[in-house]
Design a protein that fits this description.
The protein has twelve helices and eight strands. The protein is of the alpha/beta class. The chain has a single domain, classed as Rossmann fold, CATH 3.40.50.12640. Strands 3-2-1-6-7-8 form a six-stranded parallel beta sheet, sandwiched between helices. A two-stranded antiparallel sheet has the order 4-5. Bound molecules: ligand PTJ. Ligand PTJ binds next to α2 and α4. One of its GO terms (molecular function) is ATP binding. Catalyzes the condensation of (R)-4-phosphopantoate and beta-alanine to 4'-phosphopantothenate in the CoA biosynthesis pathway.
C-alpha cells in the first residue's frame, strides 16, 4: 500500500482507493471496478463527501425494510467485497440478512475468492456459489441462488448497474441500493435509494439497526410508511447543487 499519512487532506478518499487497488491485486475486484470507483469518487466530491440528511432517512427506511423482511439478502460484488467486508458481515449478522455474491463480470474463481474473503472477515454462510437459478437478463448478473436473491423479499444491492435492479423490482421485491449517482438507472428504479458512499452508508445502517432493532413491528412499518423515495432523490440533487454553489462562492467564483 502507498504510504498515506492521516494528515493528508484526502486521507479517507485515498485509503478507499488503495483498498480497491488491493482488491484488484487479490483477484476480488474487477478492473472495471476501478473505473466504477472513480465515478463514485467524482459524485462523492460533488456531494461533499458526507452523509446528507435525506440519505440518513433512506438508510433508516432501508433498515426498517430489512428488519421486517422474511428473507433479506445483501448482494456483494467485487467493489463492496474489497471496500467494506467487515461492515457487510456485521450488517448481515445484526439484521439476520444473508450475504450472496453476485457479479456482473462473473467467474467461478472470483465468486470463490470473494466468498473466502468474506469468511476470513467473519461471515458464516455465503450464498452465490450454486448459481442454480437465472433472472431474465442477458448477462451473468442473472446467475443467482434459488434460496438467496431468487426467493428474497428484500435485496440490498450496493453499487451496481441498473438492469438487475429493475428486474428484481419487476419480480415484486423490495430493492435497496447504495449509489452515489442519484440519476443512475439503479437509483431511479429502486424502492429505497441511498445516495451515499458505501463506506459511510453501511456504518450508518449498522448503527441504525442497533437503535431500531428493539422497536415494534408497527414502529418499523411507520418508518416505511413515512418514506418518500422521490423526495430523497430530489434532495440529493439539490444538496449536490448547493454544495457546488457554496464551494464556488468560497473560492470567489460567482454562481450564475
Ligand atoms: O464485481 P462486479 O463484476 O459485479 O462489478 C461491479 C461493478 C461496480 C464494476 C459493476 O457493477 C459496474 O460496472 O457498475 P457501474 O455501472 O460502474 O455502476 C457503479 C455505480 O456505483 C455508479 O453509479 C457509481 O457512481 C457508484 N459508486 C461507485 N463507487 C461507489 C459508488 N456508490 C457508492 N459508494 C461507492 N464507493
Amino acid at each position: 500500500m502507498t504510504g498515506i499519512t492521516k494528515d493528508h487532506p484526502r486521507y479517507e478518499s485515498l485509503i478507499t482507493r488503495e483498498k480497491i487497488v488491493e482488491g484488484v491485486n487479490m483477484g476480488i475486484t474487477s478492473k472495471q471496478g476501478l473505473v466504477a470507483q472513480g465515478r463514485g469518487e467524482a459524485f462523492d466530491y460533488i456531494l461533499g463527501e458526507k452523509t446528507i440528511e435525506s440519505a440518513a432517512i433512506a438508510e433508516r427506511a432501508a433498515v426498517a425494510y430489512i428488519l421486517l423482511a422474511k428473507n433479506p439478502i445483501i448482494s456483494v460484488n467485487g467493489n463492496t467485497g474489497a471496500l467494506v467486508p467487515d461492515q457487510l458481515v456485521s450488517l448481515a449478522d445484526i439484521t439476520g440478512a444473508r450475504l450472496e455474491v453476485n457479479l456482473f463480470h462473473r467467474s467461478d474463481a472470483r465468486v470463490h475468492k470473494i466468498t473466502e474473503h468474506l469468511k476470513a472477515h467473519g461471515a458464516g454462510v455465503v450464498l452465490g456459489g450454486k448459481g442454480d437459478k437465472r433472472l431474465d437478463l442477458s448477462h451473468d448478473r442473472a446467475i443467482v441462488d434459488e434460496e438467496g436473491i431468487f426467493s428474497a423479499d428484500v435485496v440490498l444491492v450496493p453499487l451496481e448497474d441498473g438492469d438487475r435492479c429493475q428486474k428484481l423490482v419487476e419480480m415484486g421485491k423490495t430493492v435497496i441500493t447504495i449509489d452515489l449517482n442519484p440519476l443512475s438507472r439503479t437509483s431511479l428504479t429502486s424502492t429505497v435509494t441511498i445516495v451515499d458512499n458505501v463506506t459511510r452508508a453501511l456504518n450508518n445502517m449498522i448503527q441504525f439497526t442497533k437503535d431500531m432493532k428493539g422497536g415494534s413491528k408497527d414502529s418499523l412499518q411507520a418508518v416505511i410508511d413515512a418514506y418518500d423515495n422521490d423526495r430523497v432523490i430530489s434532495d440529493a440533487l439539490y444538496s449536490m447543487q448547493e454544495h457546488l454553489k457554496n464551494k464556488a462562492e468560497e473560492k470567489g467564483i460567482t454562481w450564475i
